[in-house]
Fold these 2 entries.
Entry 1:
Amino acid sequence: MESDYVEIPLRTQGLVTLVSRQDSDRVSRHVWYASGKLGKTGRLRYAHRAINGKSQFLHHFILEIETGSIKRPVDHIDGNGLNNTRENLRITTQSSNCQRTFPKPTNGFQGIQKQHSLVNKWVACIRIGGKNKRYLGSFSTPEEAATEYDLAALKIHGSLAKKPTSCGQKSGEAGRG
């Protein structure tokens, strides 16, 4: 069975980008490079090319957003800047796109911290609009706190919420069935 996406090799860093099959011919006519790197802030890598002395991101090319025009922010739904399949791209606002920018959590759970002043308690907090922090409660386990965070994220951010941690499952672990 043929997949719905195609891997396009990038000229730098030995990486590939994914594009929808319907875009593969148009995309493969150009040379693409990887930009950015993963660091403490969890910055994404993106595919881009040079055109008339300016850089054009692959996600703008696919959605036919002109280089040099007012930039329309594009969200990579799964958080992977090299997944440029149409199903993974959506035009958004700068404000909404910035709400999805997070440092990588050190404990594996977004918005969860060990409360050192309380014995065996985990605190869940969520940011609203990238600024205000809302306290969600303290919990006996990080999994309970993560579940509360996931519910609040879906309620507050809707479709722009970072993917849930699957009822407290640590980010990076495989999901259940």
Entry 2:
Amino acid sequence: MPAHRRSLPVAEFSARVDLATSVEWDQARTAIIGHEARRSTGAACVAAWRRITLTLIRPTGSGAAFEQAVGANLEQSGLTVGQQITIEAQSGVRTRLDFLTQDPLTGDIGCIECKASSTAPLTPNQTLAFPEIGQSGGTIVGAGKPGFPGGLQLPPTAVQILRGP
């Protein structure tokens, strides 16, 4: 079965994400079970998964607070800053970086991932993509963000992992 057609069992899904509230979890579970029961494929299924992952699965608590603090500091630094930008490494692995920066004077690019604690792990895709982005760069996929358009080729750039206190 192609990778894009595999379904993630609800129990595994719930174990891998941190949802903000039990109400949101119930809504997500209902949507997932509904799609599994109908064996939906195509655009409707993809749209439902995107909605669930983009709106329900997000940094919460100290992770979100740390990311916001880093973002505020970057904004004040004079750098061009883009948040939550998806990068595809040369191998095809995709990961979303918390921040991309560009120095307006030199054009230097920075890749930043925030982890709120010293023990917060990288995701499997981050573990694969970060070293590759450091060696061979990557491409911004999707529409991109202001200052960082989709299709922009990034030069080899080490991903900085900033860890909270």
